[in-house]
Design goal:
- It is a single chain.
- The protein has about 400 residues and is of the alpha+beta class.
- The protein folds into two domains: about 180 residues, no CATH class; about 170 residues, no CATH class.
- Helices cover about 55% and strands about 20% of the residues.
- It is built from 13 helices and twelve strands.
- The strands form two sheets. A six-stranded mixed beta barrel has the order 4-5-10-7-9-8. Strands 2-3 form a two-stranded antiparallel sheet.
- It is elongated.
- The two termini are about 25 Å apart.
């Protein structure tokens, strides 16, 4: 009596129906294991996607130069506490460092922006047009600053999406007047939506004025320090080495600032892209670690299947003997019990996938954490659960296949 796959599957499902509670308890380990793996992988993938989104929103191949790290009266100042960078430094970096595509000087402040009965406190950036190039931040509408506005400290402003929404709601802000620190400005553009930074700050909650305007009209810097800037955003060219660019920039600025060989840098270089890529690598390792821990429960579920299958083989010894007596071969018995173990594991895997998907979305909605379910992870989890069934079901199936018909029929 030879049993084909369809017959074996029917026998397996019948055995599961006869012992419903035992089957459910046996599948529980597989269900929990697969659900845990699906959830952990989905949450880990979401974390990686969030970091990639932050890298994309930041711009590619970026470094930021911040003034500071000076010694004053024996006290070492932190980054940003000394004014050591100038517009001329930015020009020199572009001119003399071949790896650099853009070096955008910026100044920064904060203030209240008002139009009509609406007002909003926001961050004010003094920039040139190359800032938008470095940050890969196009405009949604309007235009950038023209040469005359950049040189003449004109009272024009580009709004971020959040500021435009808070001040004008659904109205078009272009060519409207706003007041920044009591000074009237003409709105000439609105930047595209940028989203949150890696620190969770809303990058769209900002406005941009010409660099000269910020220094002379808004930030209150003295005329003697008129060319000083708060930072320089550096964009390294595609395919160029970030490390080499950082070394060349450091060497150039030390020469320009006439620093002695033993003196500390009076500026700080921060490689923003590398920082975020390190975060991405960390989140990837963490998600793999979580998935590995969750996989342990799959192994526990597999051991449970083996135990139950051994019990099943013992209980069905006379049935096995009867099948062999009427013509079933050892390989037919082996296939029958293997299919039964694999069916048990696969059904548990499918249920685990459904529970894992539900758990993933619950985690995402309750914790505000992004999740990403991938077909590859689902297929891997189901396939792995089936493999667990075959691996841990083989020994009981082999034990059943090796029985002698006469001894099996005599079993009480």
């Amino acid at each position: 009596m030879q049993l084909d796959l369809k017959t074996n599957l029917s026998i397996a499902l019948l055995a599961l129906r006869i012992n419903k509670l035992r089957s459910v308890l046996t599948m529980l380990g597989i269900i929990i294991g697969v659900a845990a793996v699906i959830t952990m992988v989905a949450v880990g993938s979401g974390a990686q996607a969030r970091v990639k989104e932050q890298i994309s929103s930041l711009g590619s191949n970026l470094m930021i130069l911040i003034p500071g790290t000076l010694l004053q009266s024996g006290v070492r100042l932190g980054a940003g506490n000394a004014q050591s960078l100038t517009e001329e430094d930015a020009i020199a970096i572009v001119r003399e460092v071949p790896e650099v595509a853009v070096a955008a000087p910026t100044s920064r402040g904060a203030g209240q922006i008002v139009t009509g009965n609406n007002n909003w406190g926001t961050t004010i950036y003094g920039v040139k047009n190359d800032y938008f190039d470095a940050r890969e931040w196009p405009l949604a509408k309007g235009r950038l600053f023209d040469a005359g506005e950049l040189q003449g400290a004109s009272k024009v402003v580009i709004l971020g999406q959040t500021v435009a929404r808070e001040l004008f709601e659904d109205a078009d802000p272009i060519d409207q007047m706003v007041r920044i620190k009591g000074i009237p400005f003409l709105v000439i553009g609105v930047a595209e939506r940028k989203g949150q930074s890696s620190q969770g700050q809303d990058q769209d909650d900002s406005v941009f004025v010409p660099l000269s305007t910020g220094r002379r009209r808004l930030f209150g810097e003295a005329l003697g320090r008129i060319s000083r800037v708060g930072s320089i955003i550096v964009k390294v060219g595609a395919g160029e080495s970030m490390k080499l660019a950082e070394e060349h920039i450091t060497e150039l600025l030390r020469q320009r600032h006439r620093l002695q060989p033993t003196a500390d840098n009076d500026f700080t270089v921060r490689n923003l892209t590398e920082i975020l890529q390190a975060q991405e690598a960390s989140s990837k390792v963490m998600s793999l670690l979580l998935a590995a821990v969750a996989s342990v429960s799959l192994m526990v579920g597999g051991i449970g299947i083996m135990n139950i299958m051994l019990v099943s083989v013992t209980e069905r010894t006379r049935e096995i003997g009867l099948r062999m007596a009427i013509g079933a071969r050892s390989k037919d018995i082996l296939a029958q019990f293997l299919v039964e173990a694999m069916t048990l594991a696969t059904i548990g895997g499918v249920i685990g996938v459904l529970l894992g998907a539900i758990a993933s979305f619950l985690v995402g909605s309750l914790a505000g954490w992004p999740v990403e379910l991938s077909f590859a992870s689902i297929a891997l989890a189901v396939g792995f659960s089936a493999a667990i069934g075959i691996f841990f079901g083989y020994y009981p199936a082999k034990k059943a296949a090796n029985m002698q018909p006469i001894q099996a029929l005599r079993y009480e």
